[in-house]
Design goal:
With about 250 residues, the chain is of the alpha/beta class. It has helices at about 35-40, 65-80, 95-105, 125-135, 140-150, 155-160, 160-170, 175-180, 200-210, 225, 230-240, and strands spanning about 1-5, 5-10, 10-15, 20-25, 45-50, 85-90, 110-115, 185-190, 210-215. It starts with a strand and ends in a 6-residue tail after the last helix. Mean pLDDT is about 85; it is low at about 125 and about 145-155.
Amino acid sequence: MFFYKNVNINYERLGSKKGRPIVFLHGWGQNIQMMKMLGEKFDNNDVIIIDFPGHGKSEEPKEVWTLFDFSDMVHTLLEKLKVKKPILVGHSFGGKVALIYASIYETEKLVLFGSPFKVKKNPDSFKVKFLKKVKSLPGMEKISEYAKKHMGSEDYRNASPIMRDILVQHVNTDITDLVKKIKCPTIIIWGDKDQAVPIEDAYELEGLIKDSAVIKYPGCTHYAYLERLGQTMSILQNFIEGDINES
C-alpha cells in the first residue's frame, strides 16, 4: 500500500526487481486480478499491478480526481519504487491513463487494449436532456438521482456518487492532442466486435501515434486481450523482449 492525496492505494509487485519494469493498469470497475494473469507470466521482469482508487482494495478518492491525477498517482508510485521508463500495459480506462502517462513521462513501450481517448458522440442525448430538465425543477433532486441510477450505463449505476463524478470526468476528457506527443513504440490490441470502444478508434489511434500498430482480434469484444489470452501473451512477450514480428 502507499498513500497519494491522502488515499490508501493497493498494488502488487511481482517477479524480479532487476528486470525491466512493466506496469499493468486495469479497466474501470475492475481490479488487480484482471491483469494479474498477464503479469504473473513475466517472472523475470519487475511487474507492478495497481488497484486504481475506488477499485479492488484501494480506497476511494476523497475528492473528484481527473485522469491526470490518476496518471500522476502512477508516476508517484513508480518514483517511490525507484522505477524509471516503464513499459505500460493498459485496458480501457487503464489504457487511457497509460496514454496520458506516456504523453508526459518517459515510457519505454506502450500496450493498449480497447483504450478510449476521445469524447464519443452520445447516442443517449434524450437521457441527458431529460436529466437536465428534471434537475432544474424544484424538489426533483431525488427523482433526478433515481433517473441517473436507472438510465445511465452499468458502470455509472454501480458507482458511488464520487466515483460517478470521476467516471463523468473520464468520459468527457478528450486526450487526442496529448496522444500525438507519444514517441514510444506502441501496440494496439483490439476486438473488432468491441461495442464499448469501436475498432475504428484503434485505427485512428494508430494514426495519431507515430510508432504504433494495430493488431485486430476478429470476433472478440472489449475484453479481447482475455478472450485470446495465449495470443496476447505471445504478442506481449515478443514486443517486450524485442521488436515484434508482424505477419
